[in-house]
Amino acid sequence: MVESKVKDKSLAAKGKLQIEWAESHMPVLMAIRERFIREKPLKGIRIAASLHVTKETAVLVKTLAAGGAEVYLAPSNPLSTQDDVAAALVEEGIHVYAWKGMNNREYYNAIGFAISSEPDITLDDGGDVAGTLHKLALGITDESVKYALEVAGNRDYVGLTRKILGGTEETTTGVIRFRAMEKDGKLMYPIIAVNDSYTKYLFDNRYGTGQSTWDGIIRATNLLIAGKVIVVAGYGWVGRGVAMRAKGLGARRVIVTEVNPIRALEAVFEGFEVMPMSEAAEVGDIFITATGDIRVITLNHMLKMKDGAVLANTGHFNVEIDVEALEKNAKSKREIRPYVVEYLLPNGRKIYLIAEGRLVNLSAAEGHPSEVMDMSFSNQALAAEYILRNKGKLTPRVYRLPQEIDEEIARLKLTAMGVRFDSLTEEQAKYISSWETGT
Question: Domain S-adenosyl-L-homocysteine hydrolase NAD binding spans what residues (predicted)?
Answer without folding.
Answer: 205-367
